[in-house]
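Researcher: Good morning. I'm working through a list of sequences from a screen, and I'd like to move beyond sequence-only analysis. For each chain I'm collecting a predicted structure so we can compare shapes side by side. This is the next one on the list. No need for commentary yet; just the structure.
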Amino acid sequence: MVTEAHLKNKISKPLKNKGKLIALRKAFKTTRERQEENISLFPDLEQRINRLKQTRDFSIGNKELLSQAIKKFENNGFRVFYADTKKDAVDFILKEIGEEKLVVKSKSNVTKEIGLHEYLEKNGVEVIETDLGDYILQLSKEKPAHPTGPACHLSRHEIAKIFSDSFGKNFEPDPLILTKFGKEKIRGYIERSKIGITGANALCAEEGAAVIINNEGNINLVQMREKKHIIVTSIDKIYPNIEEAINMVKLCTYYATGAPITSYIEIISGVSKTADIEKMLFKGMQGPNEVILVLVDNGRTEAFAKGYKNLFYCIGCGNCLLDCPVYHVVGNEYGYKGYLGGRGASASFFLENPEAALENGLFFCTTCNNCEVSCPVDIGNADYSERLREEISLAGLSFPTHNQVLENIKMTKNPFGDTSKKQIKEGNEVVYYRGCMALYREKNIADSTIKLLEKLNVSYALIDEVCCGSVALRTGNKKIVKELAKENFEKIKKTGAKTVIFSCAGCLRAFMKDYPDLNDTNLEFLHSSQYFLQKIKEGKLKLKDGRKLKVTFHDPCHMGRHLKIYEEPRDVLKRLPTIEFVEINNSKENSRCCGAGGGVKSIFGELSVSMAKERIDDARDVGAKIIVSTCPFCKRNLNDSLEMEVIDLSELLLEYSI
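Model: Good morning. Structure tokens for this chain:
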């Protein structure tokens, strides 16, 4: 059973040893720079992206298209095997290999998924990875770090040591020497092998053709082995035709490497053949005698049926990893085999089992949804991780810490189990919903907001509020939220007020996005920053000079990416006299998560603070002395880094108001 202690131990090494992530971050930075350099080569980028989304939506789970593809491949001379499970797939492939004792293969996440390499070697077949990065991982037993650059987390010094240990001689940490040696070793195996195994990036239904992309040229050699070429891929790789597949290839290459196109695009639509002599057909002319297509399901059909189709739109570019705050601090400890990051952790629920999803980091996700912004096909892991956490909860696999939070909410109507008495006040213009953090942990935020409301001389109400349920939702406990929402709405209605303001981004998101089916009122929901900006513009909240400060603003994920509220807090800051506002690196839609959300901080505090420190570095890089935020969770976690002063906007606004 996967435990909290086990997962904490799993991520402790990368959190304590940032040196292991230097090469990874350098590689990701290079990819981003190349993307920026080459974006001008894609003047139609948005049209291409929209076209790809439509294609994936049409193709994934389309049984008719899949059936059409299988028939076309068979008509073209392929032998097609549909594998319901990973065991079906590996057993079939082993049988096809027969008496051969050596096979060469190219990079393939599907073969990693089904454990093909390990299974074949267990049964006496030597398997050699022919992509240099995968070959390095094979020698070192390391896990991949990126779909197209699997060894990008290893430095040249580490690779030199891997080669030295593997081949019994000293290697200089010279990339050219190491690459040349790897090339020669791999080429020797390729020339001896009679069977080649590859994956496929796309299967084209109209043509019955497999599309495979690469830069090293190894796939051309692997697919040309004398006896058999075995293509192992999954049912979510179906495309209507070659034109749509090539559109995907260009986007995948751009987002994976920053380049406009890959070096090689292999299109295989049949076996090698000739009929040059009296039109007599001869198969296996210069290529293999047979081409076999293994189509792997392995839980995908179940996932499609349960509403997780979008999770499999992935084209394998890895762009989400470049911006994932969790991956940034723990690297490839987050994800499943070749499917890395949050999307991989969620997918493993179906490709393996619920416990595998726990092991791969289902509860590491902060639900920040930066992945959706980065993904060309809009795969956002936040929604999927929350839904799968609910299934985990229903299966009785929840973690004790989250169970205690839920029990606290049931018993005391707040996640902390706090029984202290709340301040109650009648009013009929505005309800100030303070939220559990401002009520019990970051009380200065509630105090500042109340003092600002007093200055406005507005009739505001403080209700005997209960938890909004956001923390329960994020950790997989949806059932209790309906009861909490009903209680909160009943108390708000009794005040007669039509506007509710919030200090907490999570609470605001819960009321605006998680409660819509439960809200039969015409209430207006505003963050306090939005409300106070209105009053500043109306001249009702007047400002004065104060300390000269250089500040920046951190966008809370639930307020920014989830609700698209970006400008109002900045507008308030820019209106404060003697305040110098500087924009933080990675801001607005691309804001880096502070690490507090998704129930992560309650269990994995060290992980949360590591992410907070990265956010502090973003602020330091622009010369800011203070970080301002609009979420008590963000304030608490950023302050826990002990590296920079962090305050809530309400606290700063109170200081500068008359």
